[in-house]
Write a structure and sequence with these properties.
The complex is a heterodimer of chains A (about 290) and B (about 675). Chain A has helices at about 95-110, 135-145, 155-160, 190-195, 215-230, 240-255, and strands spanning about 1-5, 15, 20, 25-30, 35-45, 60, 65, 70-75, 80-85, 115-120, 125-130, 170-175, 200-205, 230-235, 255-260, 270-275, 285, 290. With about 290 residues, chain A is an alpha/beta fold. Chain A folds into 2 domains: about 1-75 and about 255-290, no CATH class; about 80-250, 3-Layer(aba) Sandwich (Rossmann fold), CATH 3.40.50.410. The longest helix of chain A is centred in the middle third of the chain and has 17 residues, at about 95-110. Chain A starts with a strand and ends with a strand. By secondary structure, chain B is an alpha+beta fold. Chain B is about 45% helix and about 15% strand. In chain B, a hairpin with a 2-residue loop joins strand 2 and strand 3. In chain B, helix 4 (about 200-210) packs parallel to helix 7 (about 265-275), helix 12 packs antiparallel against helix 13 (about 425-440) and helix 19 packs antiparallel against helix 20 (about 570-585). Classes of the chains: A alpha/beta (about 290), B alpha+beta (about 675).
Amino acid sequence: MIHWPHLLLVLVVGTEGLVARQEPQRTVFRSNASAVAVDVSVREASRRPVTGLTMRDFQVYDNGVRQQVDIVSYGKLPIDVTIALDVSYSVTGTLLDRLRQCVVQLMRDLGPEDRLRLLLFNMRVTRITPFTRDVKLVEALLRNTTAGGGTALLDAISVALVSASSDDRRQLAVFFTDGSDSSSATSMDTLLAVAQRTRATVTFVMQGALSSLVPSQQAALAKLAGETGGRLLPVGPSGDLSSAFRNVLSDFRSAYVLYYTPRNVTGDGYHTIEVKTTRQGAMVLARRGYFGS
Amino acid sequence: MTVRKFTVGVAIVAAAVLQGRAQDSPRTQPPQVFRANTDLVVVDVSVRDGDRPVTGLRVDDFVLTDNDVRQRIESIEATAVPIDLTVVVDLSGNTGSRWNERKSAGKVIEGVQAEIARVTALLRAEDRLRVLAVDRNVQQLVELTPVASVAPVQRVEFDGLAALYDTLAAALLQPVQPARRHVVIASTRGHDNISSIGADVVRTIAERSDALLHVVAMETALDNEDALSAFQCEGMGYCWPTRRFWVPFQRRLFGPRPIHALLRDGVALAEAARRTGGDLHKTRAFSEATLAGTFKKVFEDFRNSYVLRYSPRGVSRAGWHSIDVKVAASRGYTVAARKGYGIDEAAPDALLPPIPNAPRTMRELTAAYARGGYQQVVDGIRQSRDPSQLPREFEGAGNVWPSTPHREAAFALDLAEPAVFSSKDNERQQSYRLLERFTRFVRHPLGGDTFERYWHFAVLTMLEGSVRPGVAMAFVERALDRFPDEPRFLLSRAIVNEQRWAGVGRPERGDTGERSLPEDVIRAYERVIALPGVAVEARVRLATFLQRTGRNEEALQQLSAAGSQTSPDPVVKYLRLLTTGKALDGVKRPAEAIDAYRAALGVVPAAQSARVGLMNALLVSGDRAGAEAIAEQIQTTRDDFDPWWTYWQGQFRLHGQAVARVRELSR
């Protein structure tokens, strides 16, 4: 059984591209094996991704107990990207146009097996297309988008996290928002509980909005992103939104996936995860934990 | 000398209304069938032969003309018609018996109570009484109440300047039900200091009023008052501007030179009373008239009156109608008939072109509005390119419907709405100015009537909906200034406080954007949770506030305290269940939260907020498949409505009803 990182049952039989100790092309697990998969981004101080790391370069701790990394995968698994755009009344027509271009550009950056799903949210959370690779479809759908209404950001995040997706694909959810929330039924505590039980990495792209957010809101969003291994990415009012979106995808794509089978820890409840690397000066960004069941 | 008196009343009513009333009253004739959409004029007539009322007259005995055109009297009723009596007591100036003596409030109230007792002793069970008082403000000491349940007077203002003409106008403008007669008996010291209108305006109002006005001169009081005024002016320099309309009796008797008792205003006032069929009663042979005594004489006429009904034919509908009633072949009978009535309604719809689907110009809009084309008016206003232009034109147009100011106020609501919700500052400011202006215009001089109450409610619901708490709070306070105990207005204050606390919406020009404190919000809701009609909503909103601030246990206590109290409003029902679910989530009772969310979805099946709550709770409880199924529903539902989305808009959901009621009351 593989936890990704929430103990989803995945039979990784004949999975290509996994990097095991001897870098085999194929790895066979016993059908009742239990494993946890963790996305790990390793970067130099200059933010350049560090490549070529093997299992020996990682130290993984589950509830403080060092674990044996079974497999390391790098840039091989297909990615499902969820783009969630805030279309509340604060998003003007010009910004909508720019967002449309960003999403189209991002789709062109997708790998051959990657897919993109588009959610729009104001007070209502709406999926305008399921996972797809059809750029023209997405572009046409975005052309019909108008902005207005309040914002249910936390509800949108929760829905995006809970939405069913294939276990054999990595999950990235990118939210473009000003960070304010006026209409959610979900509290931040509940959202954290949801995030601990789901596996997508959540990143926020926030254009010129951080200054208008109260510190507690900023901290809450940063905590949520950090919990999932994502981050909060501010973009200045005249900043390059398209680059921001593309960088988020590029960073995610250049992450490692570590697999380990938890040992000497109890199965149930919340497990903290800590990932370290032996590479000098490198920064590690990984999900902070998962919920065992 | 033969004393001849008469009483007359006129009412223009929809025939259907009258028919309904006739069915209600066992004393009236069997129901008659009237044509719909036809004006029916009801005329009260008394006929006297000297001091003796003439009874037993039939339809054929009367000759009635409307604008000199003889009319066919459709029915006649000889009956003791129920009376609505308005007593006006003058408490201005010095209410003491001598100029150097001042009475306490208790003594003044005692005097008023005694007057009320004397008058009510003359009334019948089916009659009703209202008491107004003259002072610097128009005071309603007793609202219109059946005689048996007149409440004691609690508080009076007295010894101030006199607003007699304003008070008389307020009395004369009271609406009268078709099957009743309105009598106004007013006492006066004979002077007016601060009314906004003059005696000539009172005369004009009286002419068009359905009331019978009798004015009683308090000559002794005026004499005392006059001595005090002279002393204050000459000795102390306090010389009040005074519109006095008669010279006091004793001065006339002993003064340096004989002058006419009535001055110019007095003549106008006497004429006002006479045009309603009443009179101005002065001292006769050293015997001063009294309220009760005057009413006793007047009341006799109501025991033996005739009610004539006719549908005007052969005369133009709009404009002033002169009425003349005679008894055919009478030999010295005195027949009293009001001198006329006025109609300024538009012509019947059948004669007019259809209302345009979206009227654009102010002329088209007001014409459509006057004919009840509300939806067309709303559509036309919403399609306006510049939402601030129409309010400006409306203000510039002056008095569009001078005889129906309520209609103007109702129209102003529709006119202001698109601008209130505009994203442009200048448009919003224009709408606020318009509403503020009409806030003053709708003020009823007696301290707030049903129309004013609903008008304020329509404004508050609109401003709550626009989520501009800084502006809304100013209007809330104005409404509460007029109706301090109105539960919906108090709830409005609590809601706007919560909006301010949350920092939702955007500050307006001049608004500091100051946040309310949590204690302010709680206090405001706590003040409302015991009030009828809003208790459940106030408690649910308080619980929601507590839940939002992490005080889940307290929220659950509030929801529990609501007990079996229910609200017929599905929005309140839904919010109650949703908040219950969220509070249970907050105290880690997911199984109960799931039940609450499911119950909420029983009220509003596709509501996103309850679905999200349920989805989260299922996931946390370990039901991943259930949570994923609901996530799918949430993302693919397009046309749902979620009451939670309107939470910050407060009572905006009631705005349509409020406006409809205002329109109804304005007609």
